Queue: 2 jobs
Job 1
Amino acid sequence: MMSPGDFTRHESSVRERGASPWSRGMRVRLLLWEYVWIFLCVWTPKPFNPWRLFILRAFGTKIFGRPFVHQRARIQIPWNIELHDGACIGDRANLYSLDRIIIGECAVVAQEAYLCTGTHDFNDPALPLLTAPITIGRRSFIGARAFVLPGIVVGETAVIGACSVIARDVPTGATVRGNPAR
């Protein structure tokens, strides 16, 4: 488990509650991304995966080989994503990529799973954003509606049960389930 010092702290230029940690330019880029995904990808059928990968690459996603990204997947910041050959991002899976998310070769992130790289420092009245990367090892399986917290590493061939909450690293080959997952 990561300690608070392991997170990246994003200070807002205005130290007030609710102030954005993102620059105006970054917010424009994010808005452009959102509209491009809606208008160029969400409506596409599954066989148009190469088109979706092209759009993701154009927005900075690192893609190795040929992963699959469902047209209704939700990706917050594509330039923080790395997808390897055979990786699969399912229907309505949410990659809340405020920090790096790496999905290993042939790993599956099932429908409605949520990979969350951001939280807040609740000990600071300004509630600054804290982020930490998530790594999903090769041939791992993240079950439907599972929730993976910031800073987690899921080892190779690990299986995460549906609706599980992953608050600690998952060792290679382990099968975990529940809230918190055990």
Job 2
Amino acid sequence: MSKLRLTCTIGNAGTAEFLVDQQNRYYFIEINPRIQVEHTITEEITGIDIVAAQIQIAAGASLEQLGLTQDRISTRGFAIQCRITTEDAAKGFQPDTGKIEVYRSAGGNGVRLDGGNGFAGAIITPHYDSMLVKCTCHGSTYEIARRKMLRSLIEFRIRGVKTNIAFLASLLTHQVFISGNCWTTFIDDTPELFALMTSQNRAQKLLAYLGDVAVNGSSIKGQVGEPKFKGEIIMPVLRDANGKAIDVSSPCQKGWRNILLREGPTAFAKAIRQNKGTLIMDTTWRDAHQSLLATRVRTIDLINIAKHTSHAYANAYSLECWGGATFDVAMRFLYEDPWDRLVSFATVHVCIRGFKC
């Protein structure tokens, strides 16, 4: 017994569902005043864009105007739709959650993908539908459509969350499904469908290990510590508006902070209100702590460029160089004390979430 869905229109598009047995007898199930998720099957075998038709019908178009009279509608070939979901078939199709690390879709002639939440980096939560993508395959015969779907499932690569792909492949290769003689309780009656052959994740695990070593360094004893590069730092030459080289041997003595130190908070607030330009806070140092580069920028590296920075940003309102990521960078990657870094910044008069030196 198979399921049949027909699209009907009563002022709009809807779906009528029936079961059809081996003697082509129809058994009514339900009617929904909307397009069902399986509409891709109808679209593939009729060539009709049902979604577009639904919108046009809702706008007042008639079936005749859309060319959807019964004498012009015909079917060709077969189509199969598989919903790729983040469900673990071995655990009663329990939804899985997590982050998709790798996502690669299938493709090719007669393969249609209707995307959902499937992409690398997507966070799958328990609060939404578990479907990642609908894969619909069309062929001139049932066997061609089945083989095309099986090949598409094999081409999918989804890592980071469990999916039902292995179960779908098991279903497509079962002799009952191949023969087209399924019944309504076929899945419940066929426990061997759940003897799943899941794919390995060797390549992704290797890449994750290499990435961890490249970013975090080796965890093997004797291979951790300060970076081995000890070369001299090449300092840039800063020049004023006249092209004259600026003496950067000492911190810049111009800036908003000097008003605060010399004249107090009231004068500082007054100067702020009287300023007609845009006051800019530079967050390069702070934001850099959240980048891969920052995991190799030591406190000494920042101190060495502090004086240059004070001159380069002489007209800036403030320089932000501290945040929560500083602790992670200092302790996890650089093996430094974050509080020592904070004291060092204060020592060279670099402002912490404050005003420009």
